[in-house]
Amino acid sequence: MTNRDTTRRTVLTGAAALGVAATLPLALAGPAHAASGTARTAAEDAAALRTRWHTLLTGGPDLDRGDERIVAATARVGRAGATAATGLDPSRTDGLFPDLTSTTLSNHVTTSFKRLATAATAWAVPGTPQHGDAALLAKLLGGVDWMLTHRYGPEHTRFDNDWDWEIGAALALNDTAVLLHDQLGAERLERVTAAVHHYTPDPNLWRVNRQIATGANRVWVSTVVAVNAVLRGDGAALARVRDALSDVEGAGANSVLAFNDTGGAAAGTGEGFSSDGSFLQHYKHPYNGGYGKELLGNLSRLLNLLAGTAWTVTDPDLDNVRGWVDDGFDPLMFRGDVMASVCGREIARPSKQGHASAQTVIEAVLRLIPCFPGEPADRFTALVKQWIAEDGYRDFLAVTDLASLVAAQRAIASAVPARGPLVAHKQHPGMDKAAHHRPAFGLGISAYSTRIYNYESIQNENLRGWHLSDGMVLLYTDDLGHYSEDYWPTVDPTRLPGTTVLAGRPADAAGQRTTSTADWAGGTALPDTTLGAYGMELRAFGSTLHGLKSWFCLDDVIACVGSGITAEAGTAETVVENRKLRDPRAALLVNGSAAPDGPGWSDELADVRWLHLAGTGGYVFPWPASVRALREERTATWREINLKYGTDTPVTRPYLTLWHDHDHGPAPSGAGYFYLQLPAASAGRTRLLSAAPPVELIADSTAVHAVRRGADGLLAANFWRAGTARELSCDGPASVLVRPRGRNVSVALSDPTQLRSTVVVELAGRGLTLASGGPRVSAARTPGSIRITADTSGLRGATLDLTLKRS
Fold it and tell me: Cβ(654)–Cβ(584) under 8 Å?
């Protein structure tokens, strides 16, 4: 460490030099104000930081108690506190709560501490029935003592999951200590801080074998150490927290703030955010909506705690957080819901349904607003105003905490206009995912490859996620509760929408944490448009199923192409749709005629030219196809997919499933499909487009998939190997878009395998010259065409775009 760092690792008195906001966190108060005049004592500075954290937990002492939203939020705190305190009995010998007595399940330790923290919050918030209640305080203090004596501290051996000991329990105990600080007494406070420090002494490390902490775990651990340092008045520990975010001692190899494709995360793991907005945790699992949102949430709290002090984070990479929000969260949210393909095993948790993940993201961005003054703050304000306003399913202002409520009200009242609905096509080559947004819908595509795992199932969670990355397509419409309200336990997990699968049911959790043997997953997009080509080579886990799948996202039409679907045994299916019905009798039109709408109906529909499902959209089959259809009421329990957090209460939901059976035989060979998905389209529009399909299939071989849009001549192609699609040819694996626009031709290309150093494409046409393209692109005229050579080395699947001009 440098002398500068050594100097900072003294006592909290250094905070006075830069100023500490002594009463309100930045999320409510704005930028920290300068401290007045004389130096303060370490105790005074510790108290100021403790007050900041206390205000994040309670909203502070100066809330407008006449505001009906504040009154309602205060009542929620009281109700939550009453529930949490139910059964709390420090005189028990087997457990602090009657339902949390296990000495083998570590989440009982964390949950006990969380209940104490929730009840302590109600005790600390003015206006709750519990505020200042002496009897509750006695129980809370007794509860802290009980846990320290019987479960948590240097004299206790940890069991089960290290996360509970070093992060979950520690975070909750820290919060309880801040909330009850003036009532704890010196001896009890010393026991609390010593216990937390025993399990989590260093922001750089976690787990009993002292592994380097990465990604969300690193920020969680840093938060534990930071709040514990405030409670102990330890400036040196706060300096270590600040440096851990940048990994000063590790020269950036483990920086949380640096993008993992430019030096961040743990060396060799790739965990954390990449520059395209992808977030990975547990090595190769996409997790923006799980660990990623927790990282953002906890980092925003840490930035609030440290801002304006001697431990302010000044790392230039802090500006990357703007990219996290713009590229890593905004494109993966639709009207208050985070796309399930990036939520990992959290989709199998009942508590994470109902837009709960988006709430965490919004709260985090609200806390970031004052940390990034100027244009970034306005950008964040515009985003949260849009996110809050467009979610008609979950009223953020009616569910958030007090501090976030005040910050949200301030943002809503600001002069900054809301961003407006997102209209974009965004690909995340760092995690094999794509998102397509139009005003009426959002669509997420989930793939995997040699670089990315198929799904995560650990701790007995997400036991039936077998096909979450086998080309799953999730459609988000104005049915905002579709993927909430028990979708994941009740949907048929063997027929997820968009996937190509072998019929049958694997064993629970079989195949989890598995990469594909195929490199081809990804695509390309034209900048500033909603035009993109995406695809994957599917090599299914646990079977011989192989196939090539493409999605050409052309504004409000998705052209779906499959070829080479082959397996040595089994019945192959491609699932066109599997929809939980808002209206159990939602009309299904088949070539304009209504199909039966009662549960239990099934049929093999022949010569289908178009289908329309009310409340969902349309499907056009330019080549008349055979489609299987099934209406069913599906009953399941959450415990079937999550033994850890699931309940045994049966839930029933209505579904309509549409799928292709390939070859109707036991060993499909070279099967394929082609259909147009029209999300949110009316029946009338679907009928019109079936009569004159807007997209023509150009190629569906095992060398190339290609389509052309009639309106503007756009040619979109996924090359699995060297091949030709009309006027376009390529020397190997690539994804290419060609769009004529007057005398100009826009071209976008990428290497979805992320292995090629050079991609060469040739476009037929006389008089074409390269007008722009940057240093990675060169072009040469040939008789009747132009040959484009693109340097794709190190691009990790990102798109290169260029412009040609006709002479």
Answer: yes
**Tens digit of each residue's pLDDT (9 = 90 or more) over 521-541:** 999 999 999 999 999 999 999
Question: Whole-angstrom Cα distance, residue 531 to residue 424?
Answer: 8
Q: Residue 192 corresponds to which tokens in the numbers above? A: 């609390």
d(CA 82, CA 91): 19
Q: Residue 480, SS3?
A: coil
Look at strands 651-662 and 617-636 and give their pairing: antiparallel
Decide if pLDDT at 10 tops 60: no
Task: Tell me whether residue 617 is exposed, middle or buried, using C-beta atoms within 10 angstroms of its C-beta: 0 to 12, 13 to 18, 19 or more.
Answer: buried
User: 213: which 2 tokens?
Assistant: 């902490």
Would you place residue 618 in the very low, low, confident or very high pLDDT band (cuts 50, 70, 90)?
Answer: very high
> How confident is the model over 224-254, as pLDDT tens digits?
999 999 999 999 999 999 999 887 544 345 6
Of the candidates 152, 291, 448, 476, the residue annotated as catalytic is 291
Residue partners of 798: CB distance under 8 A and separation at least 6: 276, 429, 750
What per-residue confidence (pLDDT) applies to 34? Answer: 33
17 phi/psi in degrees, rounded to 5: -65, -35
Instruction: Judge whether 342 and 445 are in contact, CB under 8 Å.
Output: no
Residue 30 pLDDT exceeds 80: no
| Residue 788, Cβ density class (10 Å: 0-12 exposed, 13-18 middle, ≥19 buried) | buried
Task: Kindly report the backbone phi and psi dihedral angles of residue 211, in degrees, each rounded to the nearest multiple of 5, phi listed first.
Answer: -65, 155
How far apart CA 245 and CA 258 sit, in angstroms, is 9
**Assessment of whether the complete model's pTM goes beyond 0.90:** yes
State which amino acid sits at residue 103. Answer: T
Burial status of residue 415 (CB atoms within 10 A of its CB: 0-12, 13-18, 19 or more) = exposed
For 105-164, the three-class secondary structure string (H helix, E strand, C coil) is CCHHHHHHHHHHHHHHHHHHCCCCCCCCCHHHHHHHHHHHHHHHHHCCCCCCCCCCCHHH
Strands (E), 415-545: 424-428, 433-438, 441-446, 472-476, 500-502, 521-525, 531-539
Largest CA distance in the chain: 91
> Looking at residues 584-605, what average pLDDT do you find?
97
Beta-carbon-side half-sphere exposure of residue 497 (alpha carbons within 13 Å): 23
Nearest to 673 by CA among 693, 697, 638, 645: 697
Which ranges in 450-580 belong to alpha helices (H)?
A: 487-490
Report the C-alpha gap between 611 and 631 in whole angstroms: 15
Instruction: State which amino acid sits at residue 270.
Output: G
Tokens representing residue 686 in the block: 């679907």
- Check if 655 is active-site: no
Q: How many CB atoms within 10 Å of residue 520?
A: 27
Q: Please check the confidence at residue 16 and state whether its pLDDT lies above 80.
A: no
Sign (positive or negative) of CA dihedral 618, 470, 481, 581: positive
Task: Give the model confidence (pLDDT) of 82-99 as tens digits.
Answer: 999 999 999 999 999 999
Predicted local distance difference test score (pLDDT) of residue 32: 36
**Cβ(17)–Cβ(45) under 8 Å?**
no
Q: Amino acid identity of 171?
A: L
Length of the chain (residues)? 807
Q: Are 203 and 241 in contact (CB under 8 A)?
A: yes
Residue 442 has phi, psi (to 5 degrees) of: -130, 145
Average pLDDT taken over every residue of the chain = 92
